[in-house]
Amino acid sequence: MRPSSLARYLLFGLLLLPLLASLANATEKAPPNVVMILTDDQGWGDLSIHGNRNIATPNIDQLAKEGARFDWFYVCHLCAPTRAEMLTGRFYARTGVRGVSTGQERLNLDEKTIAQYFKEAGYATGAFGKWHNGMQHPYHPNARGFDEYYGFCSGHWGHYFSPELDHNNKLVRGDGYVTDDFTNKAIEFIEKNQDRPFFCYVPYCTPHSPMQVPDEYYDKFADMDPKMRHRDPEKEQLGMTRAALAMCENVDWNVGRILKTLDELNLADSTIVVYFADNGPNSFRWNGDMKGRKGSLDEGGTRVPCFIRLPGSIKPDTRITQVAGAVDLLPTLLDLTGIEADYPKPIDGRSLKPLLTGAKTDWEDRHLIASRNNQVSVRNQTYRLDNSGKLFNIQKDIGQRKDVSAEHPKVTKKLKEVAHRYRQEMLPQQDDRPFTVGYSANTPLPARDGVAHGGVERSAPAPNCSYFTNWKTKEGKITWDVEVHEPGTYEAVIYYTCPQSNVGVEIQAELLGQETSASITEAHDPEAYGPERDRFSRGAESVVKDFRPFSLGKIDLPAGRGTLTLTATKIPGDGAIEVRYVWLKRQ
Question: Which residues form the signal peptide (predicted)?
Fold first, then answer.
């Protein structure tokens, strides 16, 4: 071959290389993104697609029509347990979650979360909203697989307009109404990571109380006489219903914003969108004649909306009639994205991909469990066995009005055996886990996790967003059961309020035989706020104050478990201080 011919072939080959590389990249299709939206205290009946004529939710309805709609989707009776099941694919009682506050909401550290699977697979991971499965590292979302976190870690918050929030374990001030704010941050995350796979978790905190919502949503409902009422109308509080429906319409608007963003970035066809709720409605309002509400183990407390969209894989208007639940979301999403499921522990969920994609499958009947303390209810495809042993044919009697246990003794016996095994295996369990200190540079210890003594009180019955008040004497103290992971020097910072008359009070922090103290030299006595924005009177939630940080000094701590104790060693005035947090900051 002549040199000129060889040169032409080499030149042709060089020109061909980019085309071949492009074709190779096209054949290696990127895995789909995931956007998971979770609402808080939204019932199955709080959507217009389910027949509620009191409300319009066009964006969520459209999402449901464009993908799969679950007829029988089940979660837990309360917030933190459902989140644990979604995060792990395991029944919540296996995961260390035993309640919704004072540390009982924490997910055991040996549990692998859905975010960790996605992060290991190369996904960008972010969560924007209410976490509710642990606050201190290594329970914090940043330590459970989420690169980016913005929201609050407690079970509820006391104010929804520009409240204090957590951004990657630092306190920041929110920007506007929380649901709008969380959506803004989620959209920013999607835009930032549009050129790589991402897992975006958006756990809204509404319509959970306090019942606060902007005027533009509430005005429509302010004087509404709902066309559709709860099955027991005398139980319904119309003011609560109106506020909840307004909050749900705000959620719908924000869902529409996320879907619009996916469209504008040309990501809609390559993104799985999941929408579901964490438990039944937080009040008695229309819910399709189901019995029970949030906190109940009946249909009304545990059956929620769930929709999954993935164009090209899930056909529009797909209806899933098989029972499914939050435990199924992890295996389903790993299956749909092609991530290898290396489960460190057996899971209770199963992949719903065959049902979603229309693949032929021999789908066996199964048992989904709802439990609260030692109470257990079991659901299979047709029946629900309640905690008292009554059996209901849900396909014919969704209101659970007729006990058919005598007519179906074999079914009743089988479901009772399932409930018994569950109780024996998982209930009850004691929770003696301390609060962890030193796994990160900054460890917050909120009033929620502390214990009051000597006349000190919480600001409200529900601990989640409370603070300590009524500290009048030296006999008063506040304690936290903690374990220091990393020995070293820590700065003890309290977040306090103090009237002018109590300036000079000396506060001491003691832990593991070490102590530090300082006197309050500056008054900080802000007004409480929150209830003035409520559309319906709050119950157990605390009012809110803007607390000020104050350093008690540095303290050298060994590793080990002990009791962090705050005491007032000098009280020159009528009392001591109010306390929202102690932060231990490793130096």
Answer: 1-26
Question: What DSSP element (H or E) covers 27?
Answer: helix 3-27
pLDDT of res. 429: 74
Say if residue 564 is in the same domain as residue 468.
Answer: yes
Helix (H) or strand (E) holding 452: strand 451-453
526 and 404 in one domain? no
In degrees to the nearest 10, what's the CA dihedral of 236, 238, 244, 246?
Answer: 150
Helices 329-337 and 79-88: angle between axes, nearest 10 degrees: 30
Please give the average per-residue pLDDT across 543-566, as a whole number: 98
Strands 164-167 and 451-453: unpaired
pLDDT at residue number 28:
65
Do 104 and 98 meet the contact criterion of CB atoms below 8 Å apart? yes
> Which of 417-421, 468-472, 537-541, 553-557 has the weakest average pLDDT?
537-541
Phi, psi of 334 (to 5 degrees): -65, -40
Which residues neighbour 430 within 8 Å (Cβ) at sequence distance 6 or greater?
none
**350 & 458 share domain:** no
| CA 445/CA 136 separation, integer angstroms | 8
**Strand, coil or helix: what is 71?**
coil
pLDDT band with cut points at 50, 70 and 90 for residue 6 = very low
Same domain, 451 and 421: no
Residue whose C-alpha is closest to residue 389's, from 408, 361, 367: 408
Residue 313: both structure tokens together: 């894989």
Run of H or E residues at 400: none
> Cα(73)–Cα(78) distance, rounded to whole angstroms?
15
Write the CA distances from 165 to 125, 131, 182, 361, 467, integer angstroms.
19, 12, 11, 46, 16
Distance CA 318, CA 546 (A): 49
Q: Domain range holding 347?
A: 42-361
Looking at residue 29, its pLDDT comes to 81
Same domain, 379 and 309: no
Structure tokens belonging to residue 366: 């199964």
Answer positive or negative: Cα dihedral of 54, 57, 58, 64. Answer: negative
Nearby residues of 49 by Cβ (< 8 Å), 6 or more positions away = 57, 60, 61, 64, 65, 69, 305
Asked if 258 and 202 touch (Cβ cutoff 8 Å), the reply is yes
Instruction: With CA atoms as reference, report the closest residue to 489 among 441, 535, 522, 448.
Output: 441
pLDDT at 10: 46
- pLDDT bracket for residue 2 (50, 70, 90): low
Instruction: Round to whole Å and give the CA distance between 226 and 497.
Output: 43
Residues 113 and 70 in one domain: yes
For the whole model, what pTM was predicted?
0.94
The band of 274, judged by pLDDT with boundaries at 50, 70 and 90, is: very high
Tens-digit pLDDT profile for residues 7-52: 454 444 455 554 444 444 444 689 999 999 999 999 999 999 999 9
Which two three-digit tokens encode residue 166? 């957590």
